[in-house]
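Subject: Predicted fold for histidine kinase, 456 residues

User T.R. writes:
Posting the sequence so we have a shared reference for the thread.
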Amino acid sequence: MKKISIKIGLLFFCLIFTMEVCLFFLLHQKIAHSRIDEQLSALVTRGNNHRDVLETYYNEETIHHIALMEVKSDTEVVITNEEGKVIISSAKINHQIQSLLNLKTKNLPRNGKVIEDNWKSGPYIATIAPFETGVDKGYVYMFQDTSQLKQLIKQLNRHFLIAGIATAFVTAIIILILSRIITRPLIKMKEATKKLSQGNFSIQLESKSNDELGELVESIQLLANELNHLKTERNEFLASISHELRTPLTYIKGYSEVAKRDHLGLEERLSYLNVITEETTKMTTLVTELMQLAQLDNNTFTIQKEFFSVCESLKKISQRLLPTFKQAGIKLLTVCPENIHIHADPVRFEQIVVNLLENARNYSPEGTSTTIEVAKKDAEIKISIHDQGKGIPSNDVPFIFERFYRVDKSRSRELGGTGLGLSIVKELVDAHHWEIEVSSKTNKGTTFTIIARGEL
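User M.O. replies:
I've generated the structure tokens; pasting them so everyone works from the same file.
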């Protein structure tokens, strides 16, 4: 993950450094041109001042005084007449100065103008200002050595270079810190996903940010929790299957060995064979329910919905289960208005009701009653199955739809349940897009309520 930190840091550095270089270049050009323009403007102004002095006090002494003033300065002055003949010069006239003096001087503005501004390659920058007196006409040329300007720009470049290096260094440090801060949650998430890939789902990620990274952290944490829950369920599921299959197989093997003994009487042998038959039936039921759950998990089963009468379906179910309820000493009652129809899969609907009724019968004592009650309100149908059994403790209610979960584990073999009936009910209810609610009080009974909306 350090690679992504380096990549992000380099990317930000390149972008910011490019912006800084562009800004520094524009700023440098602006300052450099501003300084050159100031020098040219000052040179024009100086020439105009000399012109004004000449026009006011034009004599030989004034001319020499102007030249003497420029001897001690960083500029040079050359005064010529109208024909271009040099009247006086503060410096020796060389080839470069002479070439500028030979330039055409017609139609010059009163305030003068710049006649040479190429400070990069030329030896001088120069200006010209015309003057006119009652005695003579001429021109005041001002020259400034470009070496000073070049030195000024060189010094400016040096300052900008130092500022640029310092800025790049500070920028690199800031980006390094920021990239570490940005990639820190990514590094944690990478380590977390690595643990997930290795089967370690017990990870804890925390994020205080409300941005996309925070949402990603929450998603990974949710995924880890779900995987951890699935892993726990899988282990418990496999352990439960192993236990549920091992127990009847142990009974079958043991009683088979006993039943093969020669000295056993017919009645005793039949009792052992009956046990073997019962255990085989339990195994068959378990395998059948496991296959049903596998189909539900893989969505390989289909829901074929049709409209049918709820009451007629419940009456058929009650008649089929009534003998087993009578054998257990439990009354089975049905309260259902005749005009209620539901849109559902009749086979799956029967499977849901049968599982709930068998659950009520298994956990209800003799002398109690189980009631099926149907109610309709607007576009909602409620089918409630209420028993007067031992009830479900409140701390067990949230888990009763989990596979192989039993409230009373000590009586699991006596009651004959597999712990899969309610799981199948929940899966089938969800497949119909219905809801199922549970309310229970210990030693007073349990009520399962199926809520079907929009199924009229």
